[in-house]
Input
Amino acid sequence: MAWLDLDTERWRCGPRGEEGHHDHVPVYESGSEVLQKFQEKWNSTKQQRYPAMYSSVVGGIILDPSMMVIPIDDHMVHRGHGVFDTAMLSNGYLYELDSHLDRLLLSASKAKISSPFSRETLRAILVQMTAASKCRNGSIKYWLSAGPGDFLLSPKGCTAPAFYAVVIASGATAAAAGGGGHPRLREGVRAITSTVPMKDPFFATMKSVNYLANALAMAEAEERGAYASVWVDGDGGVAEGPMMNVAFVTGGGDLVVPAFDRVLSGYTARRVLALAPRLVDAGVLRSVGAARISAADARRCAEMMFVGSGLPVAAHRRMGRPAGQVGKIALALSDMLCEDIKAGPDRLLVPYDQAS
Output
């Protein structure tokens, strides 16, 4: 319990008489004082610095990480009224930017959020921001929000929709990928079934900022010593992980990705479905498809794996398999995706030499 002693103007915590740590709360009257505190914070921590951010509220690209902020009255901040997406940055190329941008706008439409710019302008902003960052490996994340305005539930008070984006540089991730920005997980990871209720399909298929269920599912997995968890729906069907899709290889050689009617349509998973038929042609797989798969059938599969833009493939460690051993299909898909990221058709070269 915290209370303010109005006679002494001192904060006290706990029972009366027990003095807390906040004897005096500073009051900053100027923006320069606040900026100095932000800069001190960044300089005193090991928190990752972000090479660049775009904010439609500011109307430009920000290179000082201490100024990369969002208004506290933004509807996305206090009501979760926002959507987001991401694109990987590998060796100076943005991977599948257009597909992810299309999904952002689809999510925004479902969330009743209009864009302050045309699709072409959004795309140009993201490319220019990435170029200004001079970052060549990592990722970019971007958000559309109902915008700042007030603290009410209705978005009517929002002055205008907002667009934010940030470049996130990779460190060890790029090294693990041989400089390409993607790790190659050659050892299996442990997965559990989540006890956290999964989202309703309407929200699960929309990439909104409401990731509380996802965060709790990930925390649950970490508490139990697992890499991540997997949701199972009320009908006993496998759904997805907290930040990635899942895929299975049956004993008969069928690659199955759970259908996207109740889960987020992951573009890495869709890319797997597009690339994997090569393994059918090579006689390694019998078939490839998106379909419902029960949890009981999934547990009997020969291989299980997470599929997501930041992995791109992480195989589940199976009971009865030697520790760390990963199936040949998971390894093959990982190699195919890494090669696609390096030289595939859905890459956009970032014109760093044109950055202002």
Remarks:
- Confidence is low (pLDDT under 50) at residues 14-19, 172-182, 319-323.
- The CA atoms of residues 12 and 21 lie 8 Å apart.
